[in-house]
Amino acid sequence: MVWPWLSTAAFAQQSTPADTASPPAQAGASPNEPDGKKMFSSTCGFCHQDGGRHAGRGPKLSKSEKSDEFIIERIKKGKTGSMPAFGGVFNDAQIGALLAYIRGLDD
Amino acid sequence: MTFQERYLVGCAALAVAALVTVSPTRAQAPQDAALNAEAAQNDWPTHHGTYKSYHYSGLDQINAGNVKNLEVAWMHFPERATRGLQSTPLALDGVLYYSGSYSRVWALDGATGRTIWSYAPELDEELVAKQTHSPYNRGIALGHGNLYVGTVDGRLIALDIKTGKPVWDTRLLDSKKMTVGFTGAPLVVKDKVIIGAQGGEWPHRGPIFGVDGKSGQKKWEFFTVAGTEEAMKTWGGDSWRTGGGGGWMPGAYDPETNAVWWGTANPAPLYDWAGADWKKSGPRPGENLYTTSVIALDPDTGKLKFYHQELPHDAWDFDSSVGEFVMIDRGGKKLVVHANKGGHIFVYDRSNAKVENVWPLVKNINFVKSIDPKTGELIGRRDLSEGKVDPPLCPAIAGGISWNSGAYSPKTGLFYRIGQEWCMELTVEKSTPVLEPMAQLNIGATFKFIPPPDGPARGHLSGRDPVTGEKKWEVNFKQPPLASLLATAGNLVFVPDAEGIVHAYNAETGQELWSRNNGMGHNAGIISYMAGGKQYIAVPAGWGSLVADEFVALYGEPFKSMSKNTGALIVYALRQ
Q1: Which phi and psi angles does B209 have, rounded to 5°?
Q2: Beta-strand (E) ranges in B341-481?
Q3: B145 touches chain A (CB under 8 A)
Q4: Which of B445, B449, B565 sits opposite A45 (nearest CB)?
Q5: Annotation marks residue B43 as catalytic
Q6: What number is the ipTM of this complex?
Q7: Measured between beta carbons, which residues in chain B are less than 8 angstroms from residue A52?
Q8: Shortest CA distance to B85 belongs to which of B110, B104, B112, B57?
Q9: Which residue of A46, A73, A98 is the best one to mutate when testing the B interface, meaning the one whose CB has the most B CBs within 10 A?
Q10: Are B512 and B493 in contact (CB under 8 A)?
Q11: Is A84 on the interface with B (CB under 8 A)?
Q12: Which residues contact B27 (CB under 8 A, 6 or more apart)?
């Protein structure tokens, strides 16, 4: 499935999941584009440690075998007792930036 | 029937009538004498045992000599125990009351566990699903014939203590807008119910509320962020609008000064990048009053009487909401002892919050070099700048001290407290200001728990002089216990641990005398009470607090496979 709201940079990350370079979505985010790295550190890093590279309150996210669809759904709807639903907090573009950040993580 | 017989029957009827009328009156509210006592006796009338907050029972049927005969008397299993059980039960007139997740409440016969009534409020489930620190509840209060419980969707509810029927239901916070609600226990003081909102890392101002117990009307609201003109000046720009600072655990009351002591949370964002220039730059320039402070409020008006900010411009999330207020008299001085999340114990003059001493409970602390024991001034503070923090920060975000309470025994003169030894790698990010509702957390960093320099990540229980910190004994734990403690006149200290074992130690020596496996970790409060002339020990088991969630990565099993959606109230008594 194609997510039309994902940025080009995000697609670049998705297409090269083994790439260990810093994701361009975060490094080159323009003032008008959501910055996945910043959003992650403000909100997600409370549970997904070391920027998502290490398990903590939440699971390790780098090199996740979960599908994009699963991750997007989990961000939007959360999981009772484990993860809040962020569907009302982040718009689709922001969730796309978070996904791009996660897919760009090295270990 | 002779006149005399009729007279006697009449007297008996009057006596019964008197009992019938007196007994329910007694059952409607804890008595002032019980609330102000050093020891909880037959009842456990308030979250911290009594206003003196010793978590100490004066009962001694169960004691160091016979604790080996302690066995399960009865159990109760709550519905929807999401994130386990995190509350401290209360007991009054042989009835045990406790709360679980989603603010569900049960009244149980203290001797048998028979359900007298139960209550499950309807909550805004859509909102609850968006919350991070949810849906657990950490306690209730009794007073004015009511039982009081807060909700994560911003309400304070009064239930008739005899029937469990709602008396009033007051919305105090617009939780949809503010994110925060209530998880901490309320505190009853005179005609008021006092409760603090959640939140250190959310975009709000952490109010504490005073509500009329009879009517449910809000009487006052104190903003822990910029709640006075003096405090407003300690927040640069508009940062006060999103400052955090919730008073998320209950405080205590000192009737001699008519002061309610309350601890406040850290400011938001947790970590800022201003470094040493924090007074003038960064996301929240200034001291950020009254975050990470102990404050004394007038319960009648909500006005601030005095305060001490334990960590000015807290840059490490070591807030003051954790920590009960242990009120002791020593050498003619009236003192209060309060634990800060950073791992230090503060000792104050009860009349004005002047610092009398500060001592470290934990070994691995490097966010400051020390804290001046005479003034409370932070010496050698490590203010963080953008980028990787080196060396790693100690303690870790879960603190050197967690929110679960310690205990003090006036019999031994020892203060029993759990310390936590762990650190974390930390990278501070220059975050975008969070100004939108439901923005969830405002952290400003990524981090990873690591062991401290002197050994594995671990916990310890120690028995110490509460004023000097002098240690008499210490017991080490592979993982920090996350439940509150109980001391008793039976010369015992009870510690419910993380793996699921509840231990009883000799309060004088620290020798373990008894233990039982409750089958799941503890992160709630343990109490003792009397029912039908018999002493009971009640401990909720059930794992799943936010600190508990860290244990999977730190320790693996049994936490990896430990349920976070199960709970049980387990009540012990001596074998007949």
Answers
A1: -115, 145
A2: 344-349, 355-360, 370-371, 378-379, 387-393, 407-409, 414-421, 423-428, 445-450, 458-464, 471-477
A3: no
A4: B445
A5: no
A6: 0.77
A7: 446
A8: B104
A9: A46
A10: no
A11: yes
A12: B92, B93, B95, B161, B162
Summarize pLDDT for B28-37 with one digit per residue, the tens: 688 888 999 9
Q: Which residue numbers in chain A have pLDDT < 70?
A: 1-32
Q: Single out the residue of B344, B343, B484, B495 nearest to residue B422, CA to CA.
A: B343
B131 contacts on A by Cβ (under 8 Å): 84
CA distance B271 to chain A (A): 10
Of residues B254, B272, B317, B497, which has the active-site annotation? B317
Please compute the mean of the pLDDT values over residues B133-157 and round it to a whole number: 97
CA–CA gap between residue B143 and residue B346 (Å, rounded)? 30
Of the candidates B129, B430, B444, the beta carbon closest to that of A85 is on B129
Cβ contacts of A20 within 8 Å, gap of 6 or more: A106
Token pair for B69: 């005969």
Residue for token pair 């003032």 = A31
Q: Tell me the chain B residues in contact with residue A35 when contact means C-beta distances shorter than 8 Å.
A: 432
Q: How far apart are CA B472 and CA B522, in angstroms?
A: 26
Look up residue B557 and give its two tokens.
């099993």
Q: Is B200 on the interface with A (CB under 8 A)?
A: no
Average of pLDDT values for B396-404?
96
Res B434 pLDDT > 80? no
* Apex B151 CA angle, B550 and B239, nearest 5: 70
pLDDT of residue B436 exceeding 80? no
